[in-house]
Amino acid sequence: MCYILVHVSRVKYYYLAVNDGALIGLFSWKDMDNIVERGRLYDYYGGLLTEHQNLIYRAMVYDDMSLGEIAKEYNISRQGVHDLITRCDRQLKRYEEKLGLIERDMMIGSKLDKIEEIADGEQISDIVSQIRDLL
User: Fold this and answer.
1) Which residue of 9, 14, 25, 90 has the smallest Cβ count within 10 Å?
2) Domains in the chain: how many in total?
3) pTM, 2 dp
């Protein structure tokens, strides 16, 4: 699946979700932010979810399945899927509030960008690149 940024008017942008040439959905800028945030939170803290939560949340975030599709796949109610996703969202956000790993990594990345900007010469840029690879 890929997302294509579409400029609709001077102030409106949307993302088209396309899979194998077929249009799957249209997302606003805010929707896309939520998709990215969910993916990032899951990448960092998904391992702390239970196996069942992991299956359902992954289906929603990475497989882009609807609540109805997940409900049918895992033989639970649509409302049950919604409640579980909502609980997982809250839980993953609490992990970030307490542990701050995403914020820390973004801060480190920002500082490395500044070092790269300040640095003159290829050696420093190579060193910064190697540090990024280690992170």
Assistant:
1) 9
2) 1
3) 0.71
CATH code for the domain in which residue 40 is found = 1.10.10.10
Q: How many Cα atoms occupy the beta-carbon half-sphere of 106 within 13 Å?
A: 8
**Is 21 contained in some domain?**
no
What is the rounded distance in angstroms from the CA atom of residue 109 to the CA atom of residue 60? 28
Let me know if residue 48 belongs to a domain.
yes
Q: How far apart are CA 48 and CA 53, in angstroms?
A: 10
The string over 64-89, giving b where at least 16 C-beta atoms fall within 10 Å of a residue's C-beta and e elsewhere, is ebebeebbeeeeeeeeebeebbeebb
Long-range contact pairs involving 5-12 (C-beta distance under 8 Å, separation at least 24) = none
What length is written for the chain? 135
- Distance between CA atoms of residues 122 and 4, nearest Å: 34
DSSP summary character for residue 20: T
- 75-127 pLDDT, tens digit each: 999 999 999 999 999 999 999 999 999 999 989 888 888 777 777 666 777 77
The mean per-residue pLDDT over the stretch 18-43 comes to 73
- Tell me if 50 is assigned to some domain: yes
Residues ≥6 apart with Cβ < 8 Å to 83: none
The residue segments making up the domain with residue 73 are 30-99
